[in-house]
Amino acid sequence: MSFDRLIDKIIEMKNPTVVGLDPKLEYVPEFIKRRYLDSDGWTLKAAAKAIFDFNQAIIDEIHDIVPAIKPQAAYYEMYGHYGIRTLEKTIRYAKLNGMFVMTDGKRNDIGATMEAYSNAHLGATAVGENQLEAFGADALTVNGYLGTDGIEPLLKVCRERDKGIFVLVKTSNPSSGELQDMKLADGRTIYECMGDMCERWGEDTRGKYGYSAVGAVVGATYPEMLTELRQRLPHTMFLVPGYGAQGGGAEGLKGGFDEKGLGAIVNSSRAVMCAYKKEGCDERDFAKAARREVIRMRDDICQYINLK
Fold it and tell me: What is the pTM for the complete model shown?
């Protein structure tokens, strides 16, 4: 299954991390922006071109040590069709460099509409006799709060095309508890119930490591709940946001991994993209700074887990 391929890369690189490529134009060094703004003006087209150059340079520097990237669709959609093209190009470039790609889209709908989202991001679209991939990511983040009707179209693509999904379970934002921590009549919290549904949705897609094609988003900012959910959901791969810039520490992450140091992948976005600003180095060294940051992150996390 899809997450077998991801876990294979994690083991090979001894690195359970993913880089979130969520680029605001302000993160892009001036020398790259000027390359396009001087020729195309202050336009969406120029911004999207600059962002792709930025992404490409970071991928060139990290693809040999980081197993995956996670582009957040909103940061591309804000630049209109130029940004959508940059998202597509970023996904394809990362995959050409051997990286696993998870699109952070948090899609949520039912029936034919969810099938369309599924085909767009994970599957293929029929054009006459051709089946064509629009984006071609390996995994997609989704919102499960419409229930099984919103997940089943994705499961079909996961089974047929070796793809995966990450369902929002316990998110890293401060107000997540307003809904997710509420208790149901049977005593479970809403996030526990959603986690249990992930286990059920994925039960017929488990791979060689025991993890299914249905993963869960569980924030690093709630380490006790991360540990609790790892025990509760033994077949569910975790995508863990909130490390670093959002306040989640490396030691608190260890409860999200199994006894082999597997079962979770930790995201960092802004800390990697803006590493050159934090270091205060020459902006032309931005990609090398990103590489230094992902190595630091890898070493910080791996000191607490038993990844062989």
Answer: 0.95
